[in-house]
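Sequence only, no structure available. Ideas?
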Amino acid sequence: MFTLLPENFKKDLMKEYRTRLAVVSGMLLLLLLVSSIILFLPSYITATTEHAASATQEAVLLSSINAKTEDGFSKTLDDLKQDIDLITTGSKPVSPVIEAMYAQVTSGITINSVDYSATEDQNFILTVTGVASSRNDLSRFAKELQKEESFAEVNLPIANLAKDVNAPFTIAIIGKQ
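Reply:
I predicted one. Tokens follow.
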């Protein structure tokens, strides 16, 4: 191949070409750096705000944990002890009362819940909810509960006898200690 340029022009041309290539490469690298900073900026802002929010929540939780002292725990324990004493006060503990009620349950009666509460005059109220398979089973259950000596009064609302089958019921039993 023939070269028409002298050697020194050739070297200058090559030097200028490399300089242009270095400048264009540097510009592309700078453009890449700026665009990556712009694209990562929203993620950085989101991460810093979430970090600040979690730090605030952590501080609130730590302060609430520190606020609960032994006095708070002892007050809770005292309240629980009072509740237990209220249930067990009187001459009759809770379990025989519930056992007396369960002794009257027949196969047609399903008990869903039993709620026991003591009254101030040393009596108790036992609220029994459930489902009776028939109206006759429910009335038989109520009559058997009325025969029980420890139950002073058995209240079965008439509305509970409205359905003939699968009748939901609520019976309030007032007992004497």
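Residues 7-67 form the longest helix (61 residues).
Hope that gets you unstuck.
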